[in-house]
């Protein structure tokens, strides 16, 4: 059931949208243009490759009432996620209609004269895009706050800033479509202008599937190790998460954060090369068995050699068992000689090993584990990385459970979006002693 | 998913081949056409220097944001679209493209970029300009004409690319051409639409249309780039997974990659292309992955010496791993069928089995004698173990590599 505030808010918006549809001048409206645009937009929404430029073209070509009408069928037909579906569909249509009407209103306010042709036309076109984004964001933020109880500042950020850059591009496409529509060949040329955008959205969909496939491959790799080593499920993934947390905290650029996340996930991959019997041995290891286990960082490094995206995060896999005082393996490097990515992943690895349950070891609380890390900082771990982890965990909390979320993307260009989207674990840190 | 091991695609061919005469002919033709166009433009002068500069800039920017390892063969769709649009508008487009291509070849030679692409670009733009000038006439025309012109230009480009590809690799022309045509609906139609829209918009709104159209087109190219980046990371991760058996000591170093490259070459030889070829390559890379579940490594990883029950078990476990990686179902099925008699296998399965057996027998050694002995062994086993047709294809591939 919707909250009371939403039950007032949504009908008010829908009624205003209906108002926008029926008011305004009617004469001289090119109904044929409106109909073609409405069909185009609806077709785009229906096939899952939505075409926002159509709405901008409508805002530039039509009076506000007719422009709003263009958005309605597509808004109603668009696939929605979540319940109640009918309410969501009507809401979506009303929101698009109002935002499009606002954009058309702004375009009309500029009048013609110098604004009728390029380059002057750029000014009203960009103003219309901004009006569209502002209106749409205000309406979305309203519904997020009233219906989903999101914090207003977060709602506003999500609703306005994320869509702004892509919409400016769509605005340019819509502008070109509108210009060509008024040219000698009308709709045919305008539809051609929309085609590259349609293809781009299709490619983005392909990329999303490819990313999912990549995640599945990584997961399969990691599962093979976790079954062999009797790790708790999700250890690798959580080490990836903690690595990304530290990397972000010390201010690395998004692309490096993603590379380190992947390196963290794959840090133990070399254990595939270690006999299961040795990995699972409960009694103390013989020196020979210890030597065999200590080969795993080298194996892992050899395996991921070809993954260009990892770049120098690859060394994290080779050196994640080195210790600051030189007592680690495989090379016994000390201090600054250990690559910083390896020092980072080492902290993340130790942190998760302490906070997650393994067969032979009781779980420690998060604070307990952080204390232990601090105690070993300087001798085993890089104090800088430990401090960063402590700061980040204090601020964002840490959820040691296996998350139901998909593991994050490793794709370079996606990095920034993911950095923003990754929800901080909704759990407060354990109470301090 | 596509060819996971494409980078190692030519690996089994250790000898660098001499540049075939067809390639020389195409390069020569491109040089002649480009030279003639440059001279013609120098004599007649550029009708609209601002337009030439603007389109030239668009082409340069498009080339600067090339797609590394593109899915379609076109690495710089915006540059191509810009060049084609200008070809629709003015004959001097060829000279502009020659200038940019020359610069790209000079800059590209430092990074080893292929000259084939530059030659193709010059020839296709010349084709577009030559057909557009009488029909379209620079003064504007129906976008339908323009679409037709550019679509046929892009088809010619695909044929030219297939001719060059066949000449360079020796693969069957039909299979190469099929691959070239398969990618046209995506990037090809974007180039075609982009070119027509740029030309139309320039006529409708002047040079201001170029940035307005160009920025969204460049972002389209960015989407392609992003996709290509994820694809290559995925491909590399799969190769890592394949290397797991080597690291664990179940298979010799480089075995999976060599079987994959050999299977790829044999698949081409037998006329496979597109998705089927990619699945074959992927499956070949994964064919031993089931061995990870073995307790003790097989000596040298030579599964062909194991007994039937054990081989079938490895195949089934391997297919399970492959399915978990989210690979296409046909890849899992090829791996699953690895231990079946060849008559029950699909063509791809027979290829992987034969390539694997050849690698097991011949090893990584370059000694020609061992390779010949291995081929002889396989030929003797064609009655029940290996498909004679596939062994013949292998023989041709090996013979070509030995040249």
UniProtKB/TrEMBL annotation, chain A:
Where do the HD-GYP domain residues begin and end?
210-405
Official protein name in the record: HDIG domain-containing protein
Q: Which Pfam families match?
A: HD_5
What residues does the HD domain cover? 232-354
Reply yes or no: does the keyword Transmembrane apply: yes
Q: Which residues cross the membrane?
A: 6-24, 55-78, 90-110, 122-147, 159-181, 187-204
Listed Basic and acidic residues bias regions: 421-433
Species:
Actinacidiphila glaucinigra
Q: Which UniProt keywords are present, listed alphabetically?
A: Membrane, Transmembrane, Transmembrane helix
Q: Which InterPro entries match?
A: Cyclic_di-GMP/3'3'-cGAMP_PDE, HD/PDEase_dom, HD_domain, HD_GYP_dom, HDIG_dom
Which domain of life does the UniProt lineage start with?
A: Bacteria
Per the record, which residues fall in region Disordered?
403-433
TrEMBL record, chain B:
One Pfam family hit = HD
**Keywords, sorted A to Z:** Membrane, Transmembrane, Transmembrane helix
In terms of domain of life, where is this protein from? Bacteria
Q: Is the keyword Transmembrane assigned to this protein?
A: yes
Q: Where are the transmembrane segments?
A: 21-43, 79-106, 145-169, 181-199, 205-224
UniProt xrefs under SUPFAM superfamilies: HD-domain/PDEase-like
Q: Which InterPro entries match?
A: Cyclic_di-GMP/3'3'-cGAMP_PDE, HD_domain
Q: Where is the HD domain?
A: 254-359
From the Swiss-Prot or TrEMBL record, give the protein name: HD domain-containing protein
Query: Which species?
Result: Actinacidiphila glaucinigra
């Amino acid at each position: 059931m919707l909250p009371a505030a939403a039950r007032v808010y949504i009908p008010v918006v829908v009624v205003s949208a209906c108002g926008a549809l029926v008011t305004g001048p009617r004469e001289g409206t090119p109904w044929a243009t409106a109909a073609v645009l409405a069909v185009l937009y609806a077709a785009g929404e229906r096939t899952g490759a939505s075409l926002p430029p159509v709405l901008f073209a409508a805002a530039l070509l039509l009076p506000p009432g007719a422009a709003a009408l263009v958005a309605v069928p597509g808004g109603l037909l668009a696939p929605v996620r979540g319940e109640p579906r009918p309410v969501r569909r009507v809401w979506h249509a009303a929101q698009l209609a109002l935002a499009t009407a606002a954009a058309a209103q702004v375009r009309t306010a500029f009048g013609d004269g110098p604004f009728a042709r390029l380059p002057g036309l750029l000014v009203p076109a960009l103003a219309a895009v901004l009006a569209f984004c502002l209106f749409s964001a205000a309406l979305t933020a309203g519904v997020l706050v009233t219906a989903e109880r999101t914090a207003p500042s977060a709602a506003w950020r999500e609703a306005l800033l994320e869509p702004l850059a892509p919409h400016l591009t769509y605005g340019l496409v819509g502008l070109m479509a509108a210009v060509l529509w008024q040219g000698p060949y009308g709709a045919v040329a305008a539809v051609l202008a929309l085609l590259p955008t349609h293809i781009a959205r299709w490619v983005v969909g392909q990329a999303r599937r490819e990313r999912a496939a990549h995640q599945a491959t990584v997961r399969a790799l990691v599962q093979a190790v976790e079954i062999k080593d009797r790790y708790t499920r999700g250890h690798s993934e959580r080490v990836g998460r903690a690595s990304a947390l530290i990397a972000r905290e010390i201010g690395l650029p998004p692309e490096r954060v993603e590379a380190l996340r992947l390196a963290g996930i794959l840090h133990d991959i070399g254990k595939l090369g270690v006999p299961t019997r040795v990995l699972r041995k409960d009694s103390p290891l013989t020196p020979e068995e210890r030597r065999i286990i200590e080969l795993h960082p080298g194996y892992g490094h050899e395996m991921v050699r070809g993954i260009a995206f990892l770049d120098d995060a690859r060394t994290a896999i080779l050196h994640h068992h080195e210790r600051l005082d030189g007592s680690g393996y495989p090379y016994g490097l000390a201090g600054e000689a250990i690559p910083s990515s390896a020092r980072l992943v080492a902290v993340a690895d130790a942190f998760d090993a302490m906070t997650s349950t393994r067969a032979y070891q009781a779980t420690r609380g998060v604070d307990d584990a952080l204390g232990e890390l601090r105690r070993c900082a300087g001798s085993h771990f890089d104090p800088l990385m430990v401090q960063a982890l402590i700061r980040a965990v204090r601020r964002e909390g840490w959820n040691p459970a296996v998350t139901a979320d998909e593991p994050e993307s490793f794709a370079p260009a996606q990095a920034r979006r993911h950095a923003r989207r990754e929800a901080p674990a909704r759990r407060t840190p354990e109470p301090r002693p | 998913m596509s060819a996971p091991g494409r980078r190692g695609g030519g690996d089994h061919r250790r000898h660098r081949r001499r540049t075939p005469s067809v390639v020389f002919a195409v390069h020569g033709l491109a040089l002649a056409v480009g030279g003639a166009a440059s001279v013609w433009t120098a004599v007649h002068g550029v009708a609209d220097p601002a337009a030439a500069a603007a389109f030239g800039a668009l082409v340069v920017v498009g080339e600067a944001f090339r797609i590394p390892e593109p899915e379609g063969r076109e690495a710089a769709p915006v540059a191509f679209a810009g060049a084609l649009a200008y070809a629709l508008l003015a004959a001097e487009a060829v000279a502009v493209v020659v200038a940019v291509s020359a610069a790209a070849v000079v800059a590209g030679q430092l990074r080893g970029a292929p000259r084939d692409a530059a030659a193709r670009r010059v020839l296709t733009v010349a084709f577009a300009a030559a057909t557009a000038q009488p029909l379209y006439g620079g003064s504007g025309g129906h976008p339908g004409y323009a679409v037709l012109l550019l679509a046929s230009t892009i088809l010619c480009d695909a044929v030219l690319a297939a001719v060059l590809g066949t000449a360079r690799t020796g693969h069957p022309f039909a299979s190469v051409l099929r691959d070239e045509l398969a990618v046209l609906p995506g990037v090809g139609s974007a180039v075609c639409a982009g070119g027509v829209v740029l030309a139309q918009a320039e006529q409708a709104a002047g040079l201001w249309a170029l940035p307005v159209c160009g920025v969204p087109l460049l972002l389209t190219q960015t989407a392609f780039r992003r996709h290509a980046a994820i694809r290559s990371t995925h491909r590399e991760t799969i190769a890592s997974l394949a290397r797991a058996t080597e690291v664990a000591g179940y298979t010799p170093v480089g075995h999976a990659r060599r079987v994959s490259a050999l299977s790829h070459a044999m698949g081409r030889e037998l006329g496979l292309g597109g998705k089927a070829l990619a699945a074959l390559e992927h499956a070949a890379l994964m064919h031993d992955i089931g061995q990870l579940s073995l307790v003790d490594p097989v000596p040298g990883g030579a599964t062909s010496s194991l007994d039937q029950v054990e081989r079938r078990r490895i195949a089934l476990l391997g297919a399970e791993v492959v399915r978990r990686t989210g690979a296409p179902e046909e890849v899992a099925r090829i791996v699953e069928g690895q231990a079946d008699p060849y008559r029950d296998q699909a063509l791809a399965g027979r290829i992987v089995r034969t390539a694997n057996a050849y690698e097991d027998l011949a090893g990584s050694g370059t000694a020609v004698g061992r390779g010949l002995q291995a081929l002889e062994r396989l030929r003797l086993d064609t009655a029940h173990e290996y498909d004679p047709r596939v062994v013949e294809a292998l023989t041709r591939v090996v013979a070509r590599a030995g040249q």
